[in-house]
Structure formats: C-alpha cells, structure tokens
Amino acid sequence: MSATEPAVLHAFEVDLAPAYSRVRHIRRITAAHLRLWDLPSLIEPATLVVSELVTNAIQHTDGASVSLRVQQRHADELRVEVADGTPKSAEPRVAGDDDESGRGLLIVAAVAREWGVSRGGEMTWCSLAIPRGARVNIAPNSEQRPATRRPSGSVAHQPHGSC
Fold it and tell me: CA–CA separation, 48 vs 51, rounded Å?
C-alpha cells in the first residue's frame, strides 16, 4: 500500500458470471459482510448501489465476468467498485417516465458521497460515508490487512488510475 492510498480495514471481492440472477446473491453477500463488519446502517444503501452497479455492468459487458470489490477504508468510508472489462465508461442517462431502466447511475449519485469511472472505463466506483460512531471492527492481529475472500481462480482487478 502506498502512502497516498487509504488503509483498508475490511474487504471482499467476488467475480461472477454476467447473469441477472446473480444480482440477488451479490446483495446477500454484501449484506452479510456488512453485518460481520458491524456496519448494519450501511446495508440498505450499500446493497442498493451494489445492485445498480452490478446490474449496469451485466447489461453492458461483452460476456466477460463482472467483478465486485467492497472495501471499508478507514473508519469513515465504504468503497464499492464494479469492473466489467468493457472500456465504455458508464454515464448517467435521463430516463423517460415510462422507461423501465436508465436510472441506476442517478440512484448511485443520490445515495453515494461520490462516484466515478476509471480512466480506462472498465470500472465504476462509488463511496459511501460511514456514519460517525459506527464501530470499526478490526480482527485481532490483523495489522489492518484486508479480510479478502475470492473464489479460487479469480483475478483481482485494480483501479485504472484515480478518478
């Protein structure tokens, strides 16, 4: 970790096939980790942005797997990153009243403290504020190493520059 990168207290990463049926599972995984990290107040907003970003990635990927990474940074930030391997940057749309889709990034922008897209366009991220007074649950002897869990054979996706 460089001096400019924030300390990561907890993290998990999941690679998934681009299927809409996986969105429900990824929300459950996210909620379970937030309960484990003693951050129940973030379950609703985090599962909402995860659902929107993963659905968007599934919709726009060219068949490659979708990767979700959630990190608790310091005591005040939860960062959600979704990569789909597609170089087309995510952009908010203006959906019509009768449109059934097209509001996902507007929802993310409304819920998140900030959001953006990596320089290469393959990853969309957002950060959520962790409310003051929320417990920071650090495992004993962790020395602030992330508790990362990935399925075997998965590849870690790194951000492609600062946003």
Answer: 5
Query: Using alpha carbons only, what angle is made at residue 16 by residues 92 and 153, rounded to the nearest 5 degrees?
Result: 135
Count CB neighbours of 18 within 10 A. 18
- Contact in structure between 78 and 130 (CB atoms under 8 Å): yes
CA distance 22 to 129: 26
At 18, the amino acid letter reads P
- Among 56-70, 86-100, 128-142, the range with the most confident prediction by mean pLDDT is 56-70
Judged against a pLDDT cut of 50, whether residue 87 lies above it is answered with yes
DSSP 30: H
Distances (CA, A) of 135 to 27, 38, 51, 140: 22, 6, 25, 15
